[in-house]
Amino acid sequence: MLDFSRLTWPEIKDTIPRLDALLLPLGSIEQHGFHLPVNNDYYTARELAGIIQKKGEEEGLTLAVSFSLPVGCSHHHMAFPGTVSLSEETFSQVLGEILESYNQHGIRRVFIVNGHGGNAPGIEKALIKAREDGTWDMLEPFHYWDTFKEKGSEILESGHYFHACEGETSLALALKQRVLMEKAVNSLEENADLKRLNILEMEDIFVPPFHHLTKSGVIGNSKAADKEKGEKLIEIITSEAVKVIKENLVLNGKTAG
To answer: Is residue 45 scored above 90 in pLDDT?
Structure first.
């Protein structure tokens, strides 16, 4: 994996002129039920970025993975110990200054791999401000769950995706995250009303205070997760990501490499 965080500054300087896009993973540090660690969104975003980088390389793209921004907007999980959250204003400001730093080094194409739904408003705010100077060729937000809204119900037994659920846990298994499957729960059985919180069917993600809805912190059926489902989701995610990057390059008159 071409990882900027593991390169020296001269190596990065040599890479920038041939770079098609820089992948910037964004995550969160927040509770994910009894069975997943608090770094799960951060871990997922970074691992997906690495897979996207490799797949892009196979298709003639030169992509690099940036360092990851691990903390996001997770106020809705703060009742659960271990969660760390930034305000939307702070998150947006930090992201904007990260983008400005890369821009100063001549990087004009950034593809944001977002691992946490609560980050979306802050990302959009930062991108609107960043685009004002007109120097960017690509500032593309990529929320991975959007890619499998159509096929998610075919892959996931529960037909449901929200938080620490069947889909997110399946991704964790496929990405070799630490998963305690013996502690997985099905909160949809405990509270049938939670089924309405389904990203596969929602246009906008409603982010409620989780402790009012579930004692475990899970919204979904994590017990139904398995590695094979996660691998199918990863294939959809990475294929769509590379497709979007290529389309953006064409729109901006660029070619791979």
So the answer is: yes
